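dumping the sequnces here before i forget
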Amino acid sequence: MTAARLIELWRGGLRESVHSGHVVIADVNGIVEAWGNPGAVIFPRSSCKMIQALPLVESGAADAARLTDRQLALACASHEGAALHVGAVGEWLAHLGLDEGDLRCGAHLPGDAHERRRLVCSETAPCQLHNNCSGKHAGFLTLMRHIKAGPEYVELDHPVQRAVRRAFEEVTDEKAAGWGIDGCSAPNFACTIEGLARAMAGFAAPGTGARGQAQRRLFDAMVAHPELVAGEGRACTALMRAMRGRVAVKTGAEGVFVAIIPERRLGIALKIADGGTRAAEAAITTLMLHLGLIDRNDPAVARYLTGPLTNWRGKVTGELRRAEGFP
Amino acid sequence: MTAARLIELWRGGLRESVHSGHVVIADVNGIVEAWGNPGAVIFPRSSCKMIQALPLVESGAADAARLTDRQLALACASHEGAALHVGAVGEWLAHLGLDEGDLRCGAHLPGDAHERRRLVCSETAPCQLHNNCSGKHAGFLTLMRHIKAGPEYVELDHPVQRAVRRAFEEVTDEKAAGWGIDGCSAPNFACTIEGLARAMAGFAAPGTGARGQAQRRLFDAMVAHPELVAGEGRACTALMRAMRGRVAVKTGAEGVFVAIIPERRLGIALKIADGGTRAAEAAITTLMLHLGLIDRNDPAVARYLTGPLTNWRGKVTGELRRAEGFP
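..and the predicted 3d for all of it:
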């Protein structure tokens, strides 16, 4: 099966650009609704951070380090590198007796406008704490310390990544179709869209064991602290705030988005074939509307919904639309 | 015919993302080589600025205002809003007895890192001169003054835009399939990929009349001043510099790229269906390599060719590849 048309850009009454992709809405028993190819193999990228955080909680490392919900939210975050995020991750590392130099995620300029401006205007280089994945890496370091493993925690055969792979294969119920190196240097395991949606359904309907408790705890941390999971002006934060704790959503690079919907016991995974973020954001927001979880008139989510696009003079120049049949 | 796979992103031995689109290489007699659907209707966006500048030259307005090749290059530019570009367009308007307020392009933060930093760190708002289309608009104002037309030169029925539409339909040899409003508020007319490639072939093999002289003059201006057509760190500038006056290339929003190749009497037009810039740049650079116009080992163009992608720590994480069969 090929990718399905999901989101289109229209201008002057003509279709200017088209984003195709794959979407699966699943419960623990399997596919409930799908577009494109549920068997398409993808890299979840940062959309699976709550899966990568499972060993941190299940191993007892999170409790041993007395991690708070704020820290668990950061472990699942692709944050903006605002002072809020950088400060919290820095304190977390200090509490472990570690510092920024122990991270293996690399440094990049933060997305947060204020922090970016502070760095650029003071000619200060960003540090690894600014990396959008620094919270996930602080979680890896916490587990690394707990199991007394070596410092190169992003190596594929490091006990931390072996534990992550085991959890990933269990919750997707698939053997990893492969692995790649993510932007933050950590391994990222491949699975089908269906497998990723199934994993999210597991978080939506957690069991009573250690796995279920960890899933519930990570979901609760994400929805309790949407500002830590991404940041101001970001889709994940705006959508989670708008859904007031009912749903956790998480983006991943190259057009991936997932959702965890406990009240419906549903999980969602989607991948835009071309990797386009604008389409991934419009698609997940459209699905939240489709499931009655957001209000079309909520100004906080309007910019992520399909609708008119304006130019530098405020003129409407085009429109982002749902492709016919989606959803 | 549907879009053809052109550029792919690979990670860990798996295809992570795919960009499809339409490509036509044409001479004045028609299609020489094509991928995807040559009849696909597109908006050329900024890739057709040399067409939008034809009435400026053909009307005698450019000569009456004593425009230099530098100004004609700016009329065809999507510039970075560097001090170089902002200063030159400002002087041009002053020479006409006009100022920034006469522009109708709107203001946006420039792409140029130095100028952007200067504005952000001094809390100065960008002005319309910073708009990447300000040179095109200065050309429109020059023609407007020459023909003594009213100030609202971006209106569809304004004499300037009627002249642009006439030239556009003549060089594409098609009746415009429609029109939209561009990011800079000017009308942008729709045509087929084949029509846009045919128009570029016309610039590559200009006749001896007023049209041919204008086409030759605009081509010469673009290749003589690649730094004015885009700016440092931009594909158009890097590729034109690398091809040392032999070829003019121009990008347009939503994944469009064109090329004018006089020595082969060829024109090229391509559109990435999803609007992806990374794929449009990789595709046009791949075609220049395919036609023997650039050297695979030229470090100045390496970042626009398909090849390895590295992350924040310099690790190779993936690879941009040509899809099978392209080119």
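The two ends of chain A are 17 Å apart (CA to CA).
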